[in-house]
Write a structure and sequence with these properties.
alpha+beta; Nuclear Transport Factor 2, Chain: A; six-stranded mixed sheet; globular
Length: 150
Amino acid sequence: MKVMAALCVFVSAWAAMGSRQESVKPSGEEGRIIALESAWDQAEQNKDAAALAGLLADKLVYVDYDGTLSNKQQLLESIKSAAVTSEQINNEGVKVQLYNDNVAVSTGIYRDKGVEKGKPFQRRGRFTNVWIKQKGAWQCIASQSTLIAH
């Protein structure tokens, strides 16, 4: 009985210690990049090309999940297109690696649900975005996504 009581006390103490630990929060710049990733999703979902344009560098290189290569203007035109309507775009597990305070690489998983050319779709993929900070503002200079098959 003493062993069982000691075990209960140990498990309770261990659980209490674990519940007091705070999750690791990203630093200021990492948090900014994560917020920009979320803003990108919202701009794309809302077909807000003007908002998205502010997040993208003029010399953006964009590789879509199907291998399509686009520049900034082509990407913005595709966002405005009536051929695709995104009902929901979400990111998960976004991680950011900073380099020299002016370059960041973000990776994560995206989920995209909507209608394309009259047919519903659901996609899940990984993305890698390269951000550069110029004149105090972050902009994406390269983006690539790959569908997750399983």
